[in-house]
Amino acid sequence: MRDLKKSLFLTIGIIVMCFNSLYQYSWNALSPLLAKGLNASIDQIAFAFTLFTIFSTISQVIGGYIADIKGPKLIGIFSSILSSLGFLGIYLSKNLISFYLFWSLGSSGEGILYMIASNLAVKWYQEKRGFATGLVSFGFGLGATIANPFIISSKSFREPSLIIGLSELIVLPILLYFSEYPTKGISGLKPSIVITTRKWWLIYFSYIFSVVPLLSMSSALSFISREENIELLAVLISAFAFMSGVGRPIIGLISDKLGRYMTLMISIILVIIGSILLSINQIFISAIIIGLFDGALIPLYFSLIGDVFGAKYSTSNNGILYTGKAIAGLLGGIVFSLILIKGIFISGIYLFSSTLIGLVLLLLLKIK
């Protein structure tokens, strides 16, 4: 019976993640439509992606604590409604201000849902944490892979926004109603203790700098590629989203066997290679490598937090870790869009430098 419940919660997590992915990995498909429909510039639209990273991460600190203490059901239902209102709101948006407002509102809901879904895996699958967390995170690429061709083929952002918003409003509250966390057999350190340790801050800043390439690609791949052929652009964006999802359970499973730290090291080194390839204008292969290995970093860091600090307060602890995405979002959103104007070469060097810092910080984790 317990195994059946665990499978149910894992399934809920995957489906929730499929919807969550539309905020990040459908952005490349949605942003050109938004720029055209709202008569906005690249940097004005990129600012909305930065808002997404800020609100989706900050909301997790409060939402994650509530989920750890009270359980995921009620806060999950509330967050589901917020997430759906993000898309329904931009369907109604007439200008940038209303778009920013609704996108920020929806991003807050998405952030809490992301953390609940991830920690259904972290808490219920302690022995196979890397694989389970990666499998849930696979949904974060899968949903966008399915939706992106439909979004790209749309003439306006309004039709896909309405369909996505209504789908979320119907499906997500029902799923979250059946969610719960285990109440026995788990232990761990409270966030107030965790954030006083040296290990925490090394992991935190390593995470920030290591995921900048992923967020840069997520926010600006359609502009990086300069691809005018709609079919080829759809293939590139969908391939990036798919690879960022499919690598998560595979690399997560490897981390259960090889070890979390070693798997993180290898993955970050490969992201560095992907960044170098971008600087020499190998955009497609760069997007594939960064999607595959940088996408896998997020569940690996979540699992590492559970390994090092325990699973009892993992939603709270990972929620605080995920606030680093707000900083990474600034570096991969607004900052990257400004650097991109200067050219592909300098953009690749920027991503290389950021990831190298993340690697060095992770190396310091093993030095006492």
From TrEMBL:
Gene3D superfamilies: MFS general substrate transporter like domains. The chain crosses the membrane at residues 7-25, 45-67, 74-93, 99-122, 134-154, 160-179, 200-224, 230-251, 258-277, 283-308, 320-341, 347-365. GO terms for molecular function: transmembrane transporter activity. Residues 6-368 form the Major facilitator superfamily (MFS) profile domain. Keywords: Membrane, Transmembrane, Transmembrane helix. Signal peptide: none annotated. Pfam families: MFS_1 (PF07690). InterPro entries: MFS, MFS_dom, MFS_trans_sf, Proton-linked_MCT. This is Nitrate/nitrite transporter. It comes from Caldisphaera lagunensis (strain DSM 15908 / JCM 11604 / ANMR 0165 / IC-154).
